[in-house]
Amino acid sequence: MPAPRAFSYAVVRVVPHVEREEFINVGVILFCAEQRYLGCRLLLDPVRLRALAPTLDATQIARHLDGLRAVCDGDASGGPIAAMSASERFHWLVAPRSAAIQTSPVHAGISDDPAATLAHLFETLVAAPG
Q1: CA-CA distance, 63 to 125, in Å (whole number)?
Q2: Burial status of residue 51 (CB atoms within 10 A of its CB: 0-12, 13-18, 19 or more)
Q3: Disulfide engineering: 70 pairs with which of 2, 57, 78, 123, CB 3.0-4.6 Å?
């Protein structure tokens, strides 16, 4: 088993009305440089989104989240940013924005299994209770 290594993560949020500062968590992005790991889990719950912002286009938000996933995965469909190093992609993904999709401040932790940690963070911070 690998030794525990430092990682950074941010929660991805949909913020329908930036001025109201209300949001729903829709994903987590996790980066561990020492283990060369960059991953994300994203899930848009249309019911929760409709409850917060009934007029927001869930299909358009889902497309934007797909774009974030492509950049995270280094997929060519993510455009030129997806071709950058994992570290550069992580910092681009978590950069502060005044848009409908934002990230939380970056948090840090230690893990010997970044994929399992990502799954745990997703279940804890994003997945609907129940």
Answers
A1: 22
A2: exposed
A3: 78
pLDDT at 101 over 70: yes
- Distance separating alpha carbons of residues 55 and 16, to the nearest angstrom: 9
Q: What CA–CA distance (Å, rounded) separates 57 from 65?
A: 13
Predicted confidence (pLDDT) at residue 97 exceeds the cutoff of 90: no
Phi and psi of 9, rounded to 5°?
A: -150, 160
Considering only CA atoms, which of 78, 76, 87, 80 is closest in space to residue 37? 87
> Scanning the structure block, which residue is given the tokens 């840090």?
108
Q: Whole-structure pTM over 0.70, yes or no? A: yes
**What pLDDT was estimated at residue 99?**
85
